[in-house]
Amino acid sequence: VVVPHENVADLAAWAVGEFGADGMAHVVASTSLNFDVSVFEMFGPLLCGGTVEVMRDVLELGDPAHAGRSVSLISGVPSAVAQLVGGGPSVAAREVALAGEAVSAGDANAVVRAVGAERFANIYGPTEATVYAAAWYTRDEITGVPPIGAPLRNTRLYVLDAALQPVPVGVAGELYIAGPGLARGYHRRPGLSAERFVADPHGPAGTRMYRTGDLVRWSADGNLDYLGRTDF
């Protein structure tokens, strides 16, 4: 996936704007550099003078050697971070940001309680949209399936039917992402790029949108609920 540098800079600027300098002050970077979430973990803190603490694996946070330590943000994949709960994590965190796969309310609440987090973020996005495209935040106990949230700045999200027309609130449709955060396409794969990055009939002339293959629906409060894949 070909992602311009300016897209990464905009993602880092969003991270600082959303989480603030305090939230980016000490971020645990435990995601493999082969996974796009590592871009968020590294460049957000560095943009505002924060500390990036590189760990081989997020499970290192459960090591008794870290007892009593505090960080500003723990980021990771839900299934990995949830494993911290059983072992009793030794590190406290101000915020928890999970992404990369669906998360249950039970796992989210357990992780928040285990690290004493003040706020939880469920973040969604494919690499084709420069890591993240939507996010949902809460400071309360989570009931029900956490939504994937509302679009980030400079991002347009469409829920469309087979004719590329918007569906009503509460009706399932395929998620399309548009805006300057889109990647240029797939390296040396023009056919696949043309298939997934299509003309945006709802945006300015000449713009594109990315067909995610994800099935979602808008809720009445303006957040997106993730329902599954359209191709499975």
TrEMBL record:
Entry-linked Pfam families: AMP-binding
Taxonomy, superkingdom: Bacteria
Biological process annotations from GO: amino acid activation for nonribosomal peptide biosynthetic process; secondary metabolite biosynthetic process
The keyword Membrane is annotated on this UniProt entry: no
Record's keyword annotation contains Amino-acid biosynthesis: no
GO MF entry, a single one: phosphopantetheine binding
Record protein name field: Non-ribosomal peptide synthetase
Family annotation (InterPro entries): AMP-dep_synth/lig_dom, ANL_N_sf
Keywords: Phosphopantetheine, Phosphoprotein
Gene Ontology CC terms, in alphabetical order: cytosol
Residues annotated as domain AMP-dependent synthetase/ligase: 1-187
